[in-house]
């Protein structure tokens, strides 16, 4: 036998036993996005490498060490997308969607980052992202954050997540702050690790969110970004907080939250959880008013976020929130004898016509009652619908409940659609 080929490390199959959870999560994401007037956009998975270098920033984890970059056959440098915002802005600019107009867009699909695979961190993972273009005021920041809060309520995980927010101010304010921070860090240089020493010169704000406790200790007494804000930036942030307060959305202001991508300004936020161990961020985003122009469009304010679907699925599973998810099969038809074999499929077709959403599996491959019942049970169906010679003679089926304590019952053919409807 030849050696079996395995999937690439960090790139996972989603097996049939898991896809129903994924589909449930995806359908909630789609529906809630449309509840707020967002429309779907689909972008290619491969883009020019320059797109990500220009948007995410040269001195970021993603661009420095996580991108899957390769040369196309003609020598062009291409990259498997590590995130969606850059592609979304590229598409918006290319098709004139952002010019003098508002857009509310969402996307969902695989992203690729060459990271060390572990629970909640993969090399191919899936994001749902959402971007609002053309609105500079804090109302849209709060509206999008409210949308994320609704997602957690609908998924039943709202008690297990915390919202952290911060403001990064404007580019100019950050530049002034940067000078003060570098001066502070220079004095503490001997207490910093190698990573932070390097970042101090390339991207000093990233030192603030270092995970190293010694670096964090060295940061005590560091200057605060908010001290460098002008009235407009302060007002914007207050506007967001005021609206979150009014909506009853609780949050923690974390002045060390700076995000790993360069394009953010003003509001940034993350939803974090303790339920996932080290990979505690399930959703992150913020305002990026400069990116559209930076990628060649007309200056357009923008606000968005991305969430990791694997981390949501892991959370739902670890919190035992998946028992109530509908199984892949609702009802299973057992056919005993030649007549039933033929008649069973005719009836199944009629019932599928009458109950459009039903997941009705009709047994194929023959076998006795015991074998067919085993299959019915394995399918996850709630009921087995048994059709034998007696049933055909009486124009009825025998219904056996496969879960819970219900008596077996006899149901007339024309009543079966009602029975099936009740299962959905
Ligand atoms: P982290 O700090 O966990 O590396 P990040 O800041 O790199 O996250 P973003 O680029 O903001 O993440 O992506 C948004 C969301 O996508 C994250 O909050 C997370 O839920 C998910 N995500 C990011 N990287 C991965 C990955 N390698 N595997 C699985 N999910 C991921
Ligand atoms: Mg990361």
Quick rundown:
With 424 residues, the protein is an alpha+beta fold. The chain has helices at 16-35, 49-56, 61-66, 85-94, 138-155, 171-187, 194-202, 205-208, 213-218, 231-246, 291-294, 309-318, 338-354, 369-378, 389-394, 416-421; strands spanning 39-40, 46-48, 68-71, 77-80, 103-112, 124-133, 161-167, 252-253, 265-273, 281-287, 302-308, 331-335, 360-362, 383-387, 396-401, 409-412.
Describe this structure in words.
- The chain is of the alpha+beta class and 424 residues long.
- It has 16 helices and 16 strands.
- It has helices at residues 16-35, 49-56, 61-66, 85-94, 138-155, 171-187, 194-202, 205-208, 213-218, 231-246, 291-294, 309-318, 338-354, 369-378, 389-394, 416-421; strands at 39-40, 46-48, 68-71, 77-80, 103-112, 124-133, 161-167, 252-253, 265-273, 281-287, 302-308, 331-335, 360-362, 383-387, 396-401, 409-412.
- The strands form three sheets. It has an eight-stranded mixed β-sheet.
- The chain is elongated and about 90 Å long.
- The two termini are 45 Å apart.
- The model has no long low-confidence stretch (mean pLDDT 95).
- Magnesium ion binds at residues 61, 260.
